[in-house]
Fold this protein.
Amino acid sequence: MSILINKDTKLVIQGITGRDGGFHAEKMKAYGTKVVAGVTPGKEGQNINGVPVFNTVANAVKATGANTSVVFVPPGYAADAIAEASEAGIKLVIAITEGIPTIDVIRITPILERNGTKMIGPNCPGLISPGKSMVGILPTMIFKEGNVGLISRSGTLTYEMVNQLTTNGIGQSTCIGIGGDPVIGLHYIELLTLFQNDKDTEAIVLCGEIGGDAEEQAAAFIKEHVTKPVVAFIAGQSAPPGKRMGHAGALITSGSGTASEKIKAFEAAGVRVAKEPADIPLFIKEALKL
Amino acid sequence: MSILINKDTKLVIQGITGRDGGFHAEKMKAYGTKVVAGVTPGKEGQNINGVPVFNTVANAVKATGANTSVVFVPPGYAADAIAEASEAGIKLVIAITEGIPTIDVIRITPILERNGTKMIGPNCPGLISPGKSMVGILPTMIFKEGNVGLISRSGTLTYEMVNQLTTNGIGQSTCIGIGGDPVIGLHYIELLTLFQNDKDTEAIVLCGEIGGDAEEQAAAFIKEHVTKPVVAFIAGQSAPPGKRMGHAGALITSGSGTASEKIKAFEAAGVRVAKEPADIPLFIKEALKL
Amino acid sequence: MKIHEYQAKEIFAGYQIPVQHQVLCTTVDQVAAAFDEIGEAVVVKAQVLVGGRGKAGGIKFCQTKEKAIEAGKNILGMDIKGLTVEKVIVCKAVDIKDEFYVGLINDRNTKSVLLMVSAEGGVEIEEVAKTNPEKILKIPIDPLVGLQPHQARSVFFEVMQNGKHVQQAADILVKLYKVFVEQDCTLAEINPLVIDADDKVIALDAKVNFDDNALFRHPEYEAMADYDEDEKLEVEAKEKGLSYIKLDGNIGCMVNGAGLAMATMDMIKLYGGNPANFLDIGGSSNPKKVVHAMEYLMNDKKVEAVLINIFGGITRCDDVARGLLEAFSQMTVTIPIVIRLSGTNAEEGRELLKNNKQLITAQSMGEAARKVIESVKK
Amino acid sequence: MKIHEYQAKEIFAGYQIPVQHQVLCTTVDQVAAAFDEIGEAVVVKAQVLVGGRGKAGGIKFCQTKEKAIEAGKNILGMDIKGLTVEKVIVCKAVDIKDEFYVGLINDRNTKSVLLMVSAEGGVEIEEVAKTNPEKILKIPIDPLVGLQPHQARSVFFEVMQNGKHVQQAADILVKLYKVFVEQDCTLAEINPLVIDADDKVIALDAKVNFDDNALFRHPEYEAMADYDEDEKLEVEAKEKGLSYIKLDGNIGCMVNGAGLAMATMDMIKLYGGNPANFLDIGGSSNPKKVVHAMEYLMNDKKVEAVLINIFGGITRCDDVARGLLEAFSQMTVTIPIVIRLSGTNAEEGRELLKNNKQLITAQSMGEAARKVIESVKK
């Protein structure tokens, strides 16, 4: 098993005729993801390397039965594209687009909620259930099928983590980059719940960073509800306050959102926190007695 | 029995310190309506002839258990006042205010829906369950307890109808003025359903007017779902098209919304349509074999 | 409240909805100058607050200056459905590739702003609604979310042959929705929305009605009002708290409440008479209002008799009686007046009026109607 | 993006939020003239894009012109937390009856705009949040409905002693919400919102941050930007597709991805070093970006060694290598450079760089961090 995506995932790519959309469509197909449709307004009838293009997500869903969407639409139009997918009945939207105004994401959140649509991102690298399906821009060659779930706010840092796991022989059930923006869709708690309930996930890696208090909330949640071993890493211990470290969400404000607070919270919840990425596979091996 | 209001109705009057609010508060109390609270922002702590005044509907509900609200707030603030009542948990709001912009009513409609709040009006005279409770500005002396339900888009025309009934010895279960605006809360169909299910209502008088197609919809609904006898009257048979006859909703546009169309629809549904108000009690007597 | 096409287009332009450059003219000389300014084939369009001006000859395509002058002469001063054309606009003639209907209204049934779009543009939409209702797409807009760009695109993908104009049209529609809600409209319509020879999508016509109930939020609209004589009376009456609409008949009416007022008119008609007006004195009891109402009735020279029908609720019959007495003391009333008082303080009202010889009293609406018609026949 | 108090107040004024008349001054003479214009006791306030200027002496109450001139002299040119004060505003001194805190932010947890109101106005709200969190009312606003007037009233009825100021304050709050959403803010704050001696409610201070992601919708904001030297570098870097933040250390970093970049800095610190910057070259593989990145590192005179940490995903390691070679061909690099390439085309990248004697290679982040710190110690 895995969470969110698997062999049954039928993907529509919003913005497929754009540079990024087209490039990553190929990568996803190459990995085996069922890419069934693309959407670009005004380009219905085109065919991008075997993927039919539609004017609207509704048309794509009707024609292909797509159940998942990935959004490569530029920032000024992305929130509307996400809402369109949701209104068309798509239940999982992965928003790759970086730079969407926060208020736009806030505005579409209730639309997604009432349609029962889950969102990953925006400003995220996507997710992968190794051996089954990849939706996003992840470098597939570093992943390996297995039993560790991974949740991360970061992109390349995720790859670093996964690489450590894979090179140490530890495979992954599903790896999710949740995105670096302040307001995002699925967060630690929802994903921890899914992993806790996924019978093929035996341990969880949580890769956090400075800003906000999502890690503190995750720690409290783990203490109460997660019985599987969790190990964590927090990026940004050396970041100065008041500066946005690349991610719009990675901002320490007035002494809140610091790495040390987060590490303290995790340790209080019985979560081992790695000092460096290389510790992660060691901690996992110990936890799973491998 | 009766519908919507009865002896258990605990009323809060929004705009109680205004001229109209204060005047009608007395009238309602005099009829026996349980007026438990008033709301006027900034006047909490005042007492209007024994009715405590609160700053917010929430405070009024908390302190008094009010379950119904009547709104006398001026047009520019009325929609917000209705929404406030709804958000405070009030399940039935009677909006008396005339002249609320239509878009304001449209905007609060989804708020009422999600809170499960029913609205009568706006721009309506309110409703009465004779002998039990009156909420609004109705002249109570013309009503008489009994078994005929009445639904009307008009104010004084309702009084004319009720007067005809009462002077002919026919009492009423509940009489409702639904309001003359284009967009209103409860309409014929919802109220017909309530009357159909009310065991003490034996016949229904429906008093319509020109504009829109609500009467046509009501006729279709009656044919399918209403087993109790219904008699109708339509005002505005002599009104010229394109002119707004006092009520914002009473406007015939391009040959649609005319009285003759409505009368035809009712007759096709087996509803007797009175030529003049004086016919109504006769029709009712015949229907109920009195 | 209705406004002219040229005014609606000015509002559109403020929202970046593409409209044509227009020259407003009230004289034939101005029309000629406008032709020179534009320098090629033009359209001269009557500005009247009534539909069907095209059929009435109020819109002329003019290839030459002479034709434009001729059109100006014909249209300025023209009578369209009882309204005199006092203004025209002159615009460049457009090469139309395709045309569409786009409209937004406040909808009773869905309790939302209803979007209507049709490929049958440039014709009267009411006609399409009757003959080919399936050719009008109707989409209720969620009042909280508003019109989303993807909704706008989706509807144009359904009605447009060529997807390449969809984005432009959708942009216009999103802006039109903004106009509608921000400007408190009851109607905002573009008919036709056209695709021109350069593949530009333009609002070639514009129709906007404002919600009278929302005028308090838009004091600037008063300057845009252009009322005919009858409407001026109505607006003036409204300021006095009366709802007054002049009609063609000879029996003046004064009633409290709109529904009862309509029913009273109906009754007059039912008994073979012809109402001269709709007049609702409203819910309050101010005797002044009754005086004003009598003034309107007496100023209408067609009125040969008056029916006063009052059902006292909030309105007190004695107040109405007092108002009537005051009116009689201020003006000479020589025509018959039938009065029916019922409800709150009806007895007291009748008592106050009993010595007035001019008044014919009635107990019911039916009786009142019969009596007033009789009085006219005499 | 941060803007000054005086700019925020100009925006507020456009939304009819009551603010004081303010005179912007960049010289002491202007301050003196401003005092004459106002003609009574004034407040001189430093305009700097950092909090805590009150404590730093950047706000002075001046009863006389002499005092105002003195304050102007002291404050203009003053250093507040590393920023030089170049502008002040002069306003009439206000008699404050009561003061409140009002703020709106984009909130991660509730995924909404969060309204914060407190009776503890005029002090640093972060302090209140730490010491008396219960004194701040926090209300998430429904993103679809927006802030409703009754909500605004309700919150002020809770924090205000006297109900008579509630309507004014609620009006201001509804307008502030409008500013927030229409202007794409991440923060809109009034601290303090005061009641003056005439019972008027006024925004005495104003703080507005714009969402950098939404600047494309507001081209007019560029003119409002007032960056210090470091920020200018950051903005310039952003235009080149780099995310660059200058820090105090001596080890320059170049990383792909924000999270990995932070983790790399952390690693340097963990092993006893001190990072000179945060530098994320982003997800694309354009060798030009690597050249630009090297320029930033080389222009920072504090940098004694560089750590390049690339985990190739979308970024291809061979492209990074090519960029580095191009950089070396354009500039003289004399300091040690430790490079770690992993992921997509790492082999090819290493192959391209193998002949470069200046480069120290590493297999893992840990090794790279150790090696770069060693190289500095030498």
